[in-house]
Amino acid sequence: MKTSRWLRFAIVCAAMVLAFASVAQAAVSGKLEIFSWWAGDEGPALEALIDKYEKMYPGVKVVNSTVTGGAGVHAKAVLKTRLLGGDPPDTFQVHAGQELIGTWVVADRMEDLTELYEQEGWHKVFPAGLVKLLSTDKGIWSVPVNIHRSNVMFFIPDNLSKWGVGVPATWEEFLKIAPDLKAKGVVPLSVAENWTQTHLWESVALSVLGPDKWEKLWNGELSWKSPEVIKAWEMFGDILEYTNADASSLSWQQATDMVVKGQAAFNIMGDWAAGYMTTTLKLKPGTGFGWAASPGTNGIFMMLSDSFGLPVGCPNRGNAIAWLKMLGSRDGQDTFNPLKGSISARTDSDLSKYDAYLQSAANDWRSNKIVGSLAHGVTANERFMNDFATVMEIFLQTKNANAAANAAEAVAIQAGIGR
User: Fold this and answer.
1) Whole-structure pTM value
2) Which residues lie closer than 8 Å to 59 by C-beta, 6 or more apart?
3) Based on the domain organization, do 193 and 117 belong to the same domain?
4) Per-residue model confidence as pLDDT tens digits over 101-119
5) Residue 110: which domain range?
């Protein structure tokens, strides 16, 4: 009799749990608007997440509000208009670091996710240094979906063998082999539109400054007018002499295509280029394409992280929280990153699902000196980035290192860098 009572009690409890789960799932219904710049060749990874979410929550219709444009240049402008106009999406892509903290958190446009982190146990699986990038003393503001590496030099091994050149370990070595490549009708280094040149600049500056002075540049301990920074601009100018003249009209994918087609020898890009070559071009890492740390940065991992947050006043808050929970899960991250060409932000990811390039990146992430990317929102806020794009345009026209250093110093002061 007693056993029967306990059995009935257990059945009732189980029924209550199932009922609660059904109610919880039913509550996640309606729409979910996701705002990002992942389109075209970066689209399949996002679509995989959307498919996963819609299977988990069949009552939700996901609206994929993607604004195209490399590194989110156009998307950020549209997002600014929407947030300031009181029309936030339910969640949006934002780089971890000052792009998030120094732009939208200081403007009180984001909800604190500390409670979600505690509920999901994310403090145990996201590295403390990464969580710090997403945090202030008042809270945690977004959920990281990946880790990308900025300072990567890509090439095609068979082409280098054909041209009789090796992978340069320093920029001085690159400048020695570049004239021979140019004489063969090969562009030594492909670049594309403005942001990719800022992306190149940060790798050059990191090689000249080293990781410690790179970090001092952003906390105000190193002046932009210092001899070291001027030297970085001078080196950058020398390197640009061996790039393609049509850069401003190309996308980053087209600059990568130049390497794949044998029109260019090298390209400095984030490891989304590895995702593009693997997923879209069907090249095999290691044989179809090769990679190395950008010259002069071996042992340093310049990182960025895409994340999603919860905007204040978003219309479908519960649906957005369900999206964030899925993003932060191991399964969600291991669904997205192998397609995206990035590694999981979690320390417990299943590396057997990742290709040779990404396994290499994961090993470097765990062993290298970690620094933050300028071009992708880690070290500087949006105000600095917008004005630095103008500094870059002027330098590309004048190649005046001292003028660029002075202008960047003024921009840094106006943006509150180091204060």
Assistant:
1) 0.88
2) 25, 26, 28, 29, 30
3) no
4) 999 999 999 999 999 999 9
5) 29-148+306-369
